[in-house]
Amino acid sequence: MTISIKPTATDTTIQNNGSDIFTIDSSGITMASGKTLPAASLTGTLPAIDGAALTGIPNLGVGQTWTNVIGSRSAGVTYTNSTGKPIVVLFSDGNSNIATVSINGTKIGELYASAASVASIATLIIPNGDTYSLSAMPDYWWELR
Question: Quick check: 141 and 73 in contact, CB under 8 A?
Fold first, then answer.
């Protein structure tokens, strides 16, 4: 087996018997197409990744918990998602009251039950900075925030 390093003006190629294995250039090290590196050939350890450095990523559900907000919400009031992340809002009602659901001032639907034994549930994803409201109070109002 002959391993050779072939530098050029723009990159360096590592070859085995004249066949490219790796190319090293300004973007990093690239393994040639169709080539593999057996795991047994790798030595050393990788640093542990715990996610603590992952900040500013607006992933839905990451670091969020479901909270019953029925006691702190009112019908007809516009609320703004200012959490920095998208949230999920869940309304549920078993009464025959009709409530209009709005996002950013636009009616997107209605929440109502057709009979006393049938509940209506609406789940909405509210992007950061968007507003939301409900025209009548439901039985349940939960938010994943």
Answer: yes
- For residue 51, give the 3-state DSSP assignment: coil
CATH topology of domain 66-144: Jelly Rolls (2.60.120)
CA distances from 106 to 50, 68, 99, 136 (A): 41, 24, 14, 16
Which segments of the chain belong to CATH 2.60.120?
A: 66-144
Distance CA(49)–CA(44), nearest Å, equals 16
Strand order in the sheet with 99-103: 79-80, 131-134, 99-103, 106-111
pLDDT at 118: 72
Give the whole-angstrom CA distance, residue 79 versus residue 143: 12
Q: What is the pLDDT of residues 46-69, one digit of tens each?
A: 667 666 666 666 678 888 999 999
Is residue 44's pLDDT more than 80? no
Task: Find where tokens 């047994």 sit.
Answer: 40
